[in-house]
Design brief:
single chain; mainly alpha
Length: about 525
Amino acid sequence: MKALIKGLFAEPHGLLEALSVMELNHVVRECLAGSSRDFRERWPVARKNSSGLFRIMVIYSHVRKVRTLCGLDVSIRLGKARDMVEQFTSDVRTLLDRNPFDQNTVADLKEALSRDPSRYATLRDAISTIRDRSKGKMTDDAFERLGVAHVLMGQHSHALESLNQVSETKSGLVHFFRGIALENQQRWREASEAFIASAKAEFDVRNSRLHEAGCYRRMGSIEKAKEILDSMAGLETAEYFFQKGSLLALDGDLKAAAVELEKSVQMDRYHTGSLFELAYINDLFGNDDRAMEYYRQCIQRPPVPVSALINLGVMYEDEKKFREAEKCYRQVLSILPSHQRAKLFLRDCLASLSEVIDDGAERDLQATIGVFGTPVTDFELSVRSRNCLRKMNIRTLGDLTRITEIALLSSKNFGETSLNEIKEMMQSKKLRLGMALETPKTASERLVEAQEEVSPEEKALLNQPLSVLNLSVRARKCMTKLNINTIGELISLTGDKLMECKNFGVTSLNEVREKLTVLNIKLRND
C-alpha cells in the first residue's frame, strides 16, 4: 500500500488511470492512519497537522491538479472518497463506536466536534446510548470509550469514574486520558504517574512525556521539567513550545514566553493551552483585543477550557457586550451544569442586560442625597450662627461640607462658640466641615497609617502581592483599575468602595471576602 501511495504522487498518470475505487479507498484509509512516511515527506505541511481530514484535503488538491493537467476523469472517485471521509470523520456516534478505538479515532472525533459545536449534544446522547446498551454489564472497552468521551466534554470527574473502572491491564490510551482528566483537576502527581504509564505503553510517547513535564512544572519540580524538555528539543512540536513557553512565563519572562507560545500556535492553531496562556499574557499587558481573539480561538476545539469561556465572558462584560457574555456563561453551564461561578456571573450579566438597579443601593443613594440637601434652618442654631450662615449664602448641610473651619472663622462675628455649634450639628448627621473638599487618601497612604499600628508579622502579610489571593479575572481587573497591588492596600478599602468599580458586583465582593477570611483579615469596616 505504501508503494501505491508513493507511486500515486511520483508517477500519477498511469496509476490514476488504473486506480480502482477500492484502491483509492485503501489510500484514504492509509492516510487517515497517518502511517505513510512517503506521504508526509512529500507534503511537509501535512506533517505539522495531525488531522486525518487535513491530509485527505491535500490528496483532493493533488488529484484535482492531476485531473486538470492530464485530462483524467476522476470526479466520481473523488466524490466517493469524500463520502467515505465524511462517514469516517463526521458522525460522532460512528466514531465513538469505531474499531479500533485508538489515537487516530480520537483525533477524528475531536476534528468532528470542532467543525460543528452542536455535535456536543450528539456526543452526550452517544454516551447515554453506550450506557443503555450495556445495561449494567459494562465492559472495559465501554469504560474506555466513555472515559475519552467525558474528557472531550470537559467532564473530568465522570471521565475518571469510567477510566478507573477498566479492570484488566489498562491501555496507553486509558493512561493518557486519565492523565488529562487528573491534570484538569490539578492532581499533578497522579497525572504525572498516568503519563509515565502512557509513555511506557508506547502510546503517543512524545505528548505523554511533554504532559509529564507540565505536571512537574506545576508541582514545582522545575529541573525535572527542564530535563524532559531538553531531551526532546530536537522534536519541537506544538506541545513542546507550549511547555517551554510556560516555563519562561513561570520565570517571569513573559515576552520570551509569548514568543515560544506563538511558535506553538503556528504549528497547531488550536492548541488550547498555548492560546489560553497567550490570552492571559495579553490581558495582563492590557491588550484586550488580542486577548479576546486568543480566547475566542481557544474555545473552537475540544475539550473547551471552561476558564477561557469564563475569562472571555468577563471581557465581553467590560465592553458591555452582555449578549456575548451570556452565551459564554451558558456554554459553560451546558458543559458543567453545576458550575457555581458561571451561574453567579450569568446572573450578574442578565442583571446588567436588563438594567436592573439594586433597590437597596438606590435607597442608600437617595438617603445620602436627602441628608446633604437638609436646610440648616431645620436645626436649632443661635441667632448669631444663623445670621452668619445666611450672609455666607450657606443654605444646606451640603454647603457646609464644601467650606472649611478657617473660612467660617474669617466671617465677621463668627467665633469659636458658633463654630462648635455648627460642628455638633454636622456630627449629628455623621458629616464634617470641608469633607467634600478633602482629597481622598490613596490606598498606599491608608496602608502606611494602618501599618503603624500592626506587628512585624502582620506587616509582612499586608505587604504580600495581591496575586497570592488567586482572584478571578473579573476581580483582578477591578483591582488593577483601582491601583491595588498588595493585600494591605486591599483591606484599606471598604466593600462599598470596591463596588464602585465597573463590573465588580456582589459575587466578586464575596470572593474577595472569602479569600481574606482564609488569612484571618477583613476589608475596612467589615
